[in-house]
Design a protein that fits this description.
The protein has a domain of 97 residues: 3-Layer(aba) Sandwich (Trna Endonuclease, Chain: A, domain 1), CATH 3.40.1350.10. The chain is 29% helix and 33% strand. It is built from 3 helices and 5 strands, in the order ααβββαββ. The protein has a 5-stranded mixed β-sheet, with helices on both faces. A hairpin with a 2-residue loop joins β2 and β3. The chain is globular and about 50 Å long.
Length: 143
Amino acid sequence: MLRFWQKFFAPKSGDDPGAAGERLAAAWLRRERGFAVVARNWRNPRDRRDELDLVCRDAEVLVFVEIKARAAGALVPGYHAIDRRKQEVLRRTIKAYLARLRERPTTFRFDVVEIILPGTGTAAAPEILHFENVPLFSKHFRS
């Protein structure tokens, strides 16, 4: 029981894997794919729990990126960790983001970046998997 409460009240030591994964993904998308990062950790003003990890530009396309950092050998890969509940939250948050734009983009898409973190004590670099244009909205969706 004590360990349960410690994770909520213990001071943060170092960097958590999620934040490290987001930094790695943003740098990788800029360097390898030529994306421009528009926003990081954007939160819906109406519901602060709703968050977009990255909002990027890929030429003229607005790209919403969900980042999943996982330890090597994790039971559930990052791509599959985006279940129906998370998809609904992402849809709602993307709609809120689009509604706040003065000029709506003609095209947008949803990508997933999975960061596979090597085990502690290894000198291996993290593996980065980029899944482009992951289906999140129906083809008849209008922003």
